[in-house]
Write a structure and sequence with these properties.
With 388 residues, the chain is α/β, with parallel strands linked by helices. It has 21 helices and 8 strands. Helix 14 packs across helix 17 and helix 15 crosses helix 16.
């Protein structure tokens, strides 16, 4: 299901329609809906006057990139000549983005997905400032552009000295009302409006308002209702974080992708494991657990911040994504978790996210384990956890 984020679309269209047009730079993590948003914009603007380019898939060599974007263009203007040298190919690509025209010789719109991936070209001779050259050319072009990136910190650093024509647009978290739009099956069933609001609130809290996570939990919850006529978001999350679960695979992808874009791979993994056990921690506390100097630890932390895996507040470091922290606790170890351990960890996570007014949801999320011990000592333990 694709959620309609009308307010976000209106903001981007307003920037494109301004005179002179502004260049929205849409920033959001994995699963935030950047690509879906660009596809909706393409449909709305019209495919004969708008071109979507997946930079992540086409930024191989400058020559092949030039071929890819000109071979698939909907624009009538002749593509630039196929350059043979890397520098010439990159220049030709910039010229194409700048000079291409649509029907009636009108300015065109380019939707450039994952723009920072063009850094790939900086390993070729004569191409050391690719992104800076690109921004300079786009800033003076008569065409219109929308850019995206999953790397928020890197994009903000790149845009620090850019012209005011570039407008940073952070994809906001899904609202509670938008979360309810992901629960059409539940809304169609004979459950009370109060129960529906409670389910939506739990899904929203467990997913931290992140669109991809909201969608996955909502889909799993709907499947539970279809199979058995009932369900709860915490149990749905447990299933999604099982070894072959949808969110386990999504977190694994994001974890590896970001670490491979950073430096210090092994040490960064160690810091993430440390923070998965306890957060927030200061630089000194992390250095002591890592058994490295504060100087080297600070470098490692800056590299993690650079790819948005951790963030610092008042000099204390934590995971940027709470579900990623849970995944690291579960899977960055010698053996994957068993069913009981998975249920226990998800229940503990739910206790930190769900309002205390909804303890039944968190208790249900412990799979069969919590349900079997709802009386006696475990009920007493629930009270202790809730007070903490």
């Amino acid at each position: 299901m694709m959620i309609m984020r009308s307010g976000l679309e209106r903001r981007i269209l307003s920037a494109l329609d301004a005179s002179p047009s502004r260049i929205p730079v849409i920033l959001g993590g994995c699963g935030s809906g950047r690509t879906q948003l660009l596809h909706r914009l393409r449909d709305r603007l019209g495919r004969t006057s708008c071109q979507y380019i997946d930079i992540e898939r086409t930024a191989t060599t400058p020559e092949r990139f030039l071929t890819a974007i000109t071979a698939s263009t909907p624009f009538r203007s002749a593509p630039p000549p196929q350059a043979t040298a890397t520098r010439g190919a990159f220049e030709a690509a910039l010229t194409f983005l700048d000079a291409a025209r649509g029907p009636g010789n009108e300015p065109t719109t380019f939707l450039l997905d994952e723009i920072l991936e063009l850094r790939t070209f900086e390993s070729f001779p004569g191409l050391r400032n690719v992104l800076r050259e690109l921004l300079d050319r786009l800033a003076t072009s008569g065409n219109r552009f929308v850019l995206t990136s999953r790397y928020v910190a890197r994009a903000l650093r790149l845009l620090r000295d850019a012209t005011p024509r570039f407008e940073v647009v952070h994809i906001p978290p899904i609202s509670l009302e938008e979360t309810r739009e992901f629960l059409p099956l539940l809304a169609a069933m004979h459950i009370s409006a109060l129960d529906l609001v409670g389910q939506a609130r739990a899904v929203h809290a467990l997913a931290d308002g992140r669109p991809g996570y909201v969608r996955a939990i909502a889909d799993a919850l709907a499947a539970m209702y279809e199979r058995q006529g009932a369900g709860d978001p915490v149990s749905a999350l447990s299933g999604l974080l099982a070894p072959d679960g949808r969110l386990a695979l999504a977190c694994c992808f994001s974890y590896e992708l970001r670490l491979h874009r950073a430096r210090g791979y092994g040490a960064l993994k160690a810091i993430l494991e440390i923070l998965s056990q306890e957060e927030p921690l200061t630089l000194t506390e992390i250095a002591q657990r890592l058994r490295r100097t504060p100087g080297s630890t600070k470098d490692y932390l800056s590299w993690l911040e650079d790819v948005d895996l951790v963030s610092a507040r008042q000099k204390r470091y934590s995971f940027t994504d709470p579900l990623m922290r849970l995944w690291v606790r579960l899977y960055c170890r010698a053996l994957p978790p068993g069913e009981e351990e998975l249920a226990r960890e998800v229940q503990a996570y739910a206790m930190t996210r769900l309002p205390h007014a909804e303890p039944e949801l968190a208790l249900a999320g412990a799979g069969g384990v919590a349900a079997e011990h709802a009386e006696g000592d475990d009920r007493k333990n629930w009270g202790i956890i809730e007070i903490d």
